[in-house]
Design brief:
Blueprint: E1 5-6, H1 30-39, E2 46-49, H2 53-58, E3 62-63, E4 66-74, E5 79-87, H3 89-96, H4 107-120, H5 124-128, E6 137-139, E7 143-145, H6 148-152, E8 158-160, E9 166-168, E10 171-175, E11 192-198, H7 200-207
Parallel strand pairs: 2-4, 6-9, 7-10
Antiparallel strand pairs: 1-6, 3-4, 4-5, 5-11, 8-9, 10-11
Length: about 220
């Protein structure tokens, strides 16, 4: 049985901010911040933002120099989902040494930090208008896949559960550099962690009732 995790505290990742902070925004550096939160790295990074999903799907991360990839899905109002391609901690350490990475977090950790930041930055007026309480947010464990075709297929990244809670689900393509099962795969397919993440602007709209919480499609 998969354990589901309720948000319990603010500030688990660098994206989460305390009172009076601003909600993190979907900008050209979003996936760079994700890479740093996932691994704790301080190395120089280049984040490439793709204007179309086909370009993003074909893109690959690089280790020397470090290159990431980002794509943003939007609706008529704001970004809704952000896709990031990042490097794994063990690949950074293998290439740049033991101090290159200091943590190994999951995509779910990033979603959790985003939701914590959204609630932490609400004004008093916004708090009075809340439609979804913090206690009714469920951060699901990563849906982990190992093939690109599985990663790019659509899925329910946020949905209303049967208990009327808001479920946030990250999909992750995760292949560590040291995974023996992929030892003979081309380098571009190894040492990668891809994440589909909820956009902070959409998260805020949902909890304030400015957007309708989707029902599961299957």
């Amino acid at each position: 049985m998969i354990k589901r995790v309720l948000i319990a505290s603010v500030g688990m990742c660098g994206l989460a901010m305390m009172a009076h902070a601003q909600v993190p925004v979907t900008d050209k550096d979003f996936c760079e911040r994700v890479q740093r939160d996932l691994t704790g790295t301080t190395l120089k990074l280049t984040n490439i933002v793709y204007p179309d999903y086909d370009g993003f799907k074909e893109s690959k991360t690089k280790i020397d120099p470090i290159e990431l990839a980002q794509y943003v899905v939007t609706d008529a109002m704001s970004p809704t989902r952000i896709s990031c391609k990042t490097k794994t901690s063990d690949h950074l350490v293998d290439r740049y040494g033991a101090d290159a990475a200091k943590s190994d977090k999951s995509c779910a950790d990033i979603n959790r930090a985003t939701m914590d930041a959204v609630y932490g930055a609400l004004t008093e007026d916004e708090k009075s208008k809340l439609k979804i309480a913090l206690a009714d947010i469920v951060i699901e464990p990563d849906e982990t896949v190992y093939m690109g075709s599985q990663f790019v297929s659509d899925y329910d990244f946020v949905y209303r559960g049967p208990e009327a809670k808001m479920h946030v689900l990250a999909k992750s393509l995760y292949v560590t550099w040291t995974n023996l099962a992929f030892k003979w795969a081309p380098e571009r397919f190894r040492g990668v962690r891809y994440c589909h993440l909820i956009a902070p602007e959409y998260a805020k709209r949902l909890v304030l009732g400015e957007a309708q919480l989707p029902v599961p499609t299957k």
